[in-house]
Amino acid sequence: MFESAELDHDISKAAFRREEPKLREALLGAGKGETVNRLNEWMDPRHIEVQAFNAPSDEEAERPHLWRFWRALPPKGKIGIFFGAWHTEPILERVLGRISAARFQRHVSEIQRLEKMLCDEGVLLLKFWFHLSKQQQKKRLKALSRDPSTAWRVTELDRKLLDLHDDFAAVCEPFLRQTSTGEAPWIAIPGADPQYRYLAVGRTLLTALRERLDEKPVKRLPDRSPPLLPAIDNLNVLKSLELDQPMTKKQYEKAFDRWRARLNVLSRHPRFHDLSVVTVFEGNDAAGKGSAIRRVTRSIDARRYQTVPVAAPTEEERAQPYLWRFWRHIPRRGIVAIFDRSWYGRVLVERVEGYCSEADWMRAYREINEFEQQMAGHDIVVVKFWLAISKAEQYRRFKAREKVSFKRFKITPDDWRNRRKWDDYERAVCDMVDRTSTAIAPWTLVEANNKYHARIKVLKTLCEAIEEALKRAKKKRKKEGKRRKGRRGG
Amino acid sequence: MFESAELDHDISKAAFRREEPKLREALLGAGKGETVNRLNEWMDPRHIEVQAFNAPSDEEAERPHLWRFWRALPPKGKIGIFFGAWHTEPILERVLGRISAARFQRHVSEIQRLEKMLCDEGVLLLKFWFHLSKQQQKKRLKALSRDPSTAWRVTELDRKLLDLHDDFAAVCEPFLRQTSTGEAPWIAIPGADPQYRYLAVGRTLLTALRERLDEKPVKRLPDRSPPLLPAIDNLNVLKSLELDQPMTKKQYEKAFDRWRARLNVLSRHPRFHDLSVVTVFEGNDAAGKGSAIRRVTRSIDARRYQTVPVAAPTEEERAQPYLWRFWRHIPRRGIVAIFDRSWYGRVLVERVEGYCSEADWMRAYREINEFEQQMAGHDIVVVKFWLAISKAEQYRRFKAREKVSFKRFKITPDDWRNRRKWDDYERAVCDMVDRTSTAIAPWTLVEANNKYHARIKVLKTLCEAIEEALKRAKKKRKKEGKRRKGRRGG
């Protein structure tokens, strides 16, 4: 893989000086035409964001490990330069023997999917790999050490890395091979000669930007997704629910006091700080999401939760890959994040209303599962509710809302319009449940014609999920404790 | 993932009878229009190929494990129905604890890439998962056992599988989640009711075919591949070769006798039967591929090698994914397959001449690496030669061939045309070497201005690669022997 990168390029200072103005001119846009004008605009330092990733901050350590890259993504119209990205950690950990082959392989898959998603979202992803052969690396360190003015740049780590050169090669070669794809190939840059390096990166960037800008946009990509299972009979996961569940007001009040107390105690549990909770509320219009959410928030200390109402994306959010606006709200440790509507918008309203292409919502199932797996893998409890009411019950609630003046704002023409697409939404919900109810982040379908029953089921499910997670956390701690002890003993 | 699939569908015989003719009509094409006519044509049993995959035959066991699926792929215009495909083995092996988590994860990645490649090649891939809950499975076995006319259908394996139901669920759920993509999502079919099953599969197939046929073909997919590293200076892996290597005829003859004998002995080595060898010959026109190949074949017993000359694909080959015509020539154990030109055509002539889109040849690097990894993982020694001559040397050889009547057929207008694109080909070769010279299947660049030197370097490289592989095979055997002994001891 490093055949070209190991050649000893040596661009003379003179040649570089000859080339450099041309490159600068092109990158900075003294040329003509719209393309170069756009480039010019971009190449302005205000449009470049440089990010370096060192050890994660405490803010970052409390989130899934990809969180810090998501928050650093450049919006549309900007160039983000990442020094070391999601590739660095897995390679390093594997070389140092801190993660198993299986874990490493999972990282590789994760990276493949992340990069595919970014490319699908329109990101131009250029991955440069600066390569030095062992020989070249030795030479570089020697040269730096000899000169007193640069000797300080050679750290203990540099020397250690040189010793590990062969181990690195054994990990990096298959890593690069496996993460090099048509849309996001690795570009190995011979790292020995700074002039060469500069020209190679600059020209690649320039050519890539030009190519992308010159490209005629395709209106509609061909739909390569096969259709999902069509309805065969009148049975589906929603229709099989018994939506009218019995519960009187009195029963409810008693139960509410009980579950509220339990949730409160759980949220103050000492091990709760090892977790965070992400709850998603989705459901039919007027199914009672808001009132169910209030029963949750009334049960927890205000410093322990944050609610995230999800409406149309802001301008800033539209300039980012779809999931960006949800990643940014992943809570810190010990916090319950409550999403009032969520990332499922893509496979519900956006699908039904045609706001995105079929290819987009079809790939979203995969991306959402991946997102939730990232959370679950980081000890975040993901609890998802679909509040279901019948069509008749919805009609009653709409009408009732129109009558009560202070509730009238809650019912809009949109609601009536959505209602007309009831069957399409039902279909979308069933597909969503089938494709995203997973062992790590299952959907709970809540029969909500009786709102008392709905609220209690929500609280109960949430409590049980947290209890389960606390138990898992305890086991994990014990196991880690034992392992530590074992290590000390050995 | 199995929410819908666990519903108890029960299509009454009457309802089925009502539906069935409609479905049959649609599938068998009593309808109108071109679409249905095409469907009609396809639904003819002559256009459906049903494949079942049981334990691999000895023919199959001697090839990489995906080989039997490649050979079973339906050509364009046909429907292949696979009962159990590349998914079955990894799941089964993992449930039975025969493969590690890391190995299982590698299978998952491999499957993701295989299916992506198939979809990129235009295959409509429908993956049906027939799901039975544990309860339903129990009921089914009981019902079958009770009836003497069906009791024979219940095997010991069925009972064992029932016991393993929870283990299966634990492996299958994440497996399905990870291998479900936008282009090839899993479609879970409730498996309890045969009528339902039949309708569900039939309708999905019908809808999918209609959708694909109705789709307007997009002329050119947008190019999402960034450009590869541009030439910065006048140095590249080919230009850095010293093409004129000294060797006299006398030296050559002596060396040839020596290497020829060595290769012959190696090919008769008892452990050679645990291996196979795939050699690839690529190079400039008139670089001497043919004569180098003859030196190899003259060194081996005729029953031990097969040469595969690669020219334009046949009609049958054009109806298959690109790599199909190379998969079919993967040799059995103990055989040396010699490819005179190869799968690298896609990133050489097809790229330079524009026979395929940039997206196609860009993804080919990944697919080729995957292909060779499959081979290497199955103890196939992959040896790849690029025979390089200078532009001046090529001119001399072309002219010489034109003068000698019995060699005149070897020089065609194509050769002169290709020569005019010398720089484009050079660029393509450098990219090819950078992107596909891997630790498991490295390229050997052969300086071929002096054909004596070239031939000897080919023989020597081949011998050394086989020797290495024989050593590895010995080590592997020893290790396996130890493990077996260890098991017996325990």
Summary?
Two copies of one chain form a homodimer. Chain A is an alpha/beta fold.
CATH-defined architecture of the largest domain in chain A: 3-Layer(aba) Sandwich
User: Can you list the strand order of the major beta sheet of chain A?
Assistant: 6-7-5-8-9
CATH topology assignment of the largest domain in chain A = Rossmann fold
Round the mean pLDDT of chain A to the nearest integer and report it.
86
Total E-strand runs of chain A: 9
Structural class, judged by helices and strands of chain A? alpha/beta
* Count of folded domains of chain A: 2
The rough form of chain A would be described as: globular
Biggest beta sheet attributes of chain A: 5 strands, parallel
Number of helices of chain A: 20
Q: Name the largest protein-protein interface in this structure.
A: A-B, 81 and 80 residues
**Low-confidence regions of chain A:** 23-41
- Give the termini separation of chain A: 41 Å
- What string, H for helix and E for strand, traces the elements of chain A in order? HHEHHEHHEHHHEHHEHEHHEHHEHHHEH
Radius of gyration of chain A from CA coordinates: 27 Å
Fraction in helix of chain A:
40-55%
This entry's quaternary arrangement is: homodimer
Helices, strands, pairings?
2 copies of one chain form a homodimer.
Chain A: H1 13-28, H2 33-43, E1 48-52, H3 58-61, H4 67-72, E2 79-83, H5 88-95, H6 101-120, E3 127-131, H7 134-146, H8 156-163, H9 165-179, E4 186-190, H10 194-214, H11 249-267, E5 276-283, H12 289-297, E6 305-309, H13 315-318, H14 324-327, E7 336-340, H15 349-352, H16 358-376, E8 380-388, H17 391-403, H18 413-420, H19 422-436, E9 443-447, H20 451-489
Parallel strand pairs in A: 1-2, 3-4, 5-7, 5-8, 6-7, 8-9
Helix pairs in contact in A: 1-10, 5-6, 5-9, 6-16, 11-20, 12-20
